[in-house]
Amino acid sequence: MIDTGDNLRAALLRAMQTANLNAATLPMRGDLATFADAARTAGLSEIATLRAVATALGIACAESLSSYPTSSDFTAAIPIAFARKHKLLGLAPPTADSDRLWIALGDLANWDQLQVVARFLNRPITPLLAPGAVVAAAINEAYQQRTGQAQDFIQTLNEDRNAVLDELQRLAAGREDLLDNATRAPVIKLVNLILFEAVKANASDVHVQPYEDRLMVRMRIDGVLYDSYTLPKLVQEETISRVKVMGKMNIAEKRLSQDGRATVQIGDRTIDLRIASLPTSYGERIVIRLLDKSARLYDLTELGMDPRTLARFEQLITIEHGLILVTGPTGSGKSTTLYSALQRINSKERNILTLEDPIEYQLDGISQTQVSDKKGMTFAKGLRSVLRQDPDVIMVGEIRDLETATMAIQSSLTGHLVFSTLHTNDAASAVTRLLDLGIEPYLVASSVVGVLAERLVRRVCANCAQSYRPHPSEMEWLGVERSATTKMRMGTGCPACRNTGYRGRLGTFELLALDDDVRRLIQARATATEIKEAGIAAGTRTLRDDGIDKILAGVTTIPEVERVTLRTDDADRSMGVPPMHSSAASNAPL
Ligand SMILES: [Zn+2]
Known about the structure:
The chain has 590 residues and is of the alpha/beta class. 42% of the residues lie in helices and 22% in strands. Residues 1-5, 19-30, 146-155, 175-183 and 567-590 have low confidence and may be disordered. Zinc ion binds at residues 461, 463-464, 491, 493-494, 496-497, 501.
């Protein structure tokens, strides 16, 4: 609701009376947070509240900060932690001759901090109100751009690379104690360089893979594995040892697979590393999965859902109780979607708890629990504990067995909204998977309210995209008529996309909302194909249909949609493989 008219002012006045405040005393009282709470209780949206306050105080308010350049004076002087904590960001003055700094404020509770900033920078400031999430995203972006130092460092490392390798080779030739070598500077530099590169390229995984005569470093970027470095065999032991030391793993143990974890700070970003080793005939193979703790959350509207699917999904997630499933192979964006959904329904009135493996993102105001089979905290056991915490909404990272499935379904039937994921090809197969696990059809039919199947496709690089007239065979693949105006787009390759023609990803979706027809089919133990057909008859658009729309919109390409729709079979076959070894982080940037 964006409305600064009379209705809003009336609502605002009512809210102010409730909070026992009046407009004249607001800035003096410094109690804008109380007012914001009152406004929220009165049913005003965040932006409407901000606009009302801005009007009352005679200051500006913006729904988006995209047209406001950031002030480099601000980012140079104010640490990112302070900016993040108080949700404020300096904007360049609208006119160059003005000494006044504009400060975007994303949380009225931090109004007093404006004075702190003004004193610290010794400049007059003009506040501008903006939604909290908008300011938070702008802060991340502003400080991301200020990576001059990091860039320089990477540059130095790049220039040093040969020297680093030379030194490593000398060390290796000397056959010194590995325990010592693992802490030596060159190998640390080399591993840091690899991690820097991985973070810079937004890689979700780094593979360190030994061959007979060399050590390969490969990175998974936007879901696809690329060769990054070929290192000489003689640095293998030390490189791998260094990674294992970082993960607090036992470096003397080389015959058993191990898991480790580490957290590294790269520039302004905090990255969690999940490290797994596996002995092979040429030495230990290492996979490092990168989880970017500072990655921002995506709003549901940013994931790539077409407006109709989005509207139906938004409707589904606001119901009181039931089971909502998101399905697809590992790395298909399920976690990102679930986080966006939880974020959307998160409010003080709702008690939301999650069970995850791993926790990819810390959600504000939501209790997240790490599941670990090793420590005996399984999904089923965790779920039992979570149910004693009086939850309204529960997110169970994954349904893998009958026990978890049974408990998730029971919870959804006893007044809880439950979200979970399954590894299945399409939405309809999720329903039959539950039956295959041993759940009674009437329980599935009465608990599941909707299934969202998802895949990530790579986005055509905006920097080097070119339109072209599709070939008749391409139109045949799409199954649509070519008109004189049909255009498709592909990236031609540029430095921005590492010559791949793609940059970033977006989701393709298939939403099956369960209606009476589908429920009857489930009761009758119909096949997934029959359920799928009933869904299509009722308006479900398949993953392929959605992909085709995106190809015709020039957002992605035929090979991409082909890749992710073919891959479904492989994904199902590899279900037993632990997610860490098999693929991309689902929280990867879209
Ligand atoms: Zn490009």
